[in-house]
């Protein structure tokens, strides 16, 4: 069947229908419908709908919807949402979120976070955190922190701190402290202090002090003093001087 009147044309045959009018065309056949007009196209078939217009595209199907408009893309499906706009992409699903933008990627899931950017990577998983950057590595886990960079190493844990940098070594643990550097060595322990630098050594403990410098040695203890120097030795004790 063909009908034509006033610029309108209709054609129908065996399940096919075509309607044409100025600026509009509609076609239906076997569950498919197509509508075309200037700047607009619509297609429906088997539960799928597609709409296209300048700067806009919409796709809808059972359980899925996708839309793009002016540089924005949105996709929605059961348990999944994705969005992209101006260089930004966001994807969300149960227990998972992913974001990418301008060279940055962030991924988050239960117990896991990953961040990646040019020259930087950071990862946290359960109780572990790792950070990587040019010349720098940092790790924290179960109360332990380790940091490494050119010329520098640091370790921190409950009751323990250790640092090495530029020839300096420092260690502190359980009330004890040790320092080592060019021209300097020092140790402190409950009740004991030792210091050594070129030409000078000092030892201090409860009831005892020892000093050695430039050929001079001094020892002091309760009731006793000893002084030793080139050509001279002096000992003093209650009631006795030698």
Automatic annotation (TrEMBL):
Membrane-spanning parts: 30-52, 64-90, 96-116, 128-149, 155-174, 195-221
The keyword Glycoprotein is annotated on this UniProt entry: no
Domain of life: Eukaryota
Signal peptide coordinates: none
Keywords: Membrane, Transmembrane, Transmembrane helix
Stated name of the protein: Uncharacterized protein
């Amino acid at each position: 069947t063909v009908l034509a009147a006033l610029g309108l044309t209709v054609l129908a045959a065996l399940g096919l229908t075509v309607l044409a009018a100025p600026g509009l065309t509609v076609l239906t056949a076997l569950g498919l419908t197509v509508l075309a007009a200037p700047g607009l196209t619509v297609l429906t078939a088997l539960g799928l709908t597609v709409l296209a217009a300048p700067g806009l595209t919409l796709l809808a199907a059972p359980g899925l919807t996708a839309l793009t408009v002016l540089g924005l893309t949105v996709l929605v499906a059961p348990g999944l949402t994705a969005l992209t706009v101006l260089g930004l992409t966001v994807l969300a699903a149960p227990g998972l979120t992913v974001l990418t933008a301008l060279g940055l990627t962030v991924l988050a899931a239960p117990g896991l976070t990953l961040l990646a950017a040019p020259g930087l990577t950071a990862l946290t998983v359960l109780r572990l955190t790792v950070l990587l950057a040019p010349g720098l590595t940092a790790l924290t886990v179960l109360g332990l922190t380790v940091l490494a960079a050119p010329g520098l190493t640091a370790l921190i844990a409950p009751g323990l701190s250790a640092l090495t940098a530029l020839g300096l070594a420092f260690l502190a643990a359980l009330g004890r402290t040790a320092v080592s550097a060019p021209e300097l060595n020092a140790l402190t322990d409950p009740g004991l202090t030792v210091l050594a630098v070129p030409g000078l050594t000092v030892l201090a403990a409860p009831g005892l002090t020892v000093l050695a410098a430039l050929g001079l040695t001094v020892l002091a203890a309760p009731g006793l003093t000893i002084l030793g120097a080139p050509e001279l030795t002096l000992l003093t004790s209650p009631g006795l001087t030698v």
